[in-house]
Amino acid sequence: MSKLFLVTGRPGVGKTSLIIGLIDKVREKGYSVGGIVSKEFRRNGVRHGFEILDLLTGRKGILASSDLPFGPRIGKYKVNLKDLKDIAADSLDKASDCDLIVCDEVGPMELLSPEFKRALRRTLEGERILLFSVHYKIRDPLIEELLAKGQLFELNIENRGELKDKLFNLILESLEKNAYNRNR
Questions:
Q1: How far apart are CA 7 and CA 16, in angstroms?
Q2: In whole angstroms, what is the distance from residue 100 CA to residue 165 CA?
Q3: Angle, to 10 degrees, between the axis of helix 114-125 and the axis of helix 141-149?
Q4: Cβ-count burial 141-180 (b if 16+ within 10 Å, e if not)
Q5: DSSP string across the chain
Q6: What is the strand order of the sheet 60-65 is part of?
Q7: How confident is residue 178, by pLDDT bands cut at 50, 70 and 90?
Q8: pTM of the model as a whole
C-alpha cells in the first residue's frame, strides 16, 4: 500500500483545487492535515504570482511574484527563497505529527530552495501518509525519487470527479491502516 500519492497534470487543470477538496474530506473524517498549499493570486484578472499557505497555522507567504524586486527568476516571476525556507520548509517539518502531510507543489520554484528540499526529504523518511502535487514536465533527481516511491495520478478535465473519489478512498484506506499500525 502506498504512503505517497502524487498528483500531476497540466497547469490550470485543477491540481490545487483537487488537493484542497481532499484535505477538506480527510479533515471531515477526523484526521489531522499539515503541510502547504500554493495558490495563485491575481489582480484585475491577471496572475501576479503564488502564495504559500501553511495548513496547520494558516500562515501565508509569497512563493513567487512578478512584483518581487529580488530572487531567482522563473519565467516572469521572482522566487521568494526566504518564505520557501521560513514557511514552506518549516510547515513540512511541523507537520511530522499529522496524519496526512500535503505538499502542493513540488516544482521548479520550490526546488530552488535547499531548505525546502531537505524538509521534503525528511518528510519522505517519516511514516505518515503523503499527498504531493508534482510539476507536469520538470525532471529533477528529487522528483524522480518521488515518482519511484509514490503512486502517480494524472489529473485532466475528463477525470476530475472520478479521480477525487478514487484518491480519497485510497488515502482514507492508507490513513486507517497507518492509524491501526501505530496503535498496535
A1: 9
A2: 17
A3: 20
A4: ebbeebeeebeebebeeeeeeebbeebbebbbebbeebee
A5: --SEEEEE-STTSSHHHHHHHHHHHHHHTT--EEEEEEEEEEETTEEEEEEEEETTT--EEEEEETT-SSS-EETTEEE-HHHIIIIIIHHHHHGGGSSEEEEEEESTTGGG-HHHHHHHHHHHHSSSEEEEEE-SS---HHHHHHHHHSEEEE--GGGHHHHHHHHHHHHHHHHHHHHHHHH-
A6: 73-74, 77-79, 60-65, 46-54, 33-43, 100-106, 129-134, 4-8, 151-154
A7: confident
A8: 0.94
139 pLDDT band, cuts 50/70/90, is confident
The CATH fold assigned to 4-38+93-183 is Rossmann fold (3.40.50)
Give the model's confidence band at 180: pLDDT under 50 very low, under 70 low, under 90 confident, else very high.
low
What are 61-99's pLDDT values in tens digits? Answer: 999 999 999 999 999 999 999 999 999 999 999 999 999
CA distance 93 to 91: 5
Are 175 and 99 in contact by the 8 Å Cβ rule? The answer is yes
Res 182: pLDDT: 61
User: What mean pLDDT value characterizes the chain?
Assistant: 94
The C-alpha cell that represents 50 in the structure block: 503564488
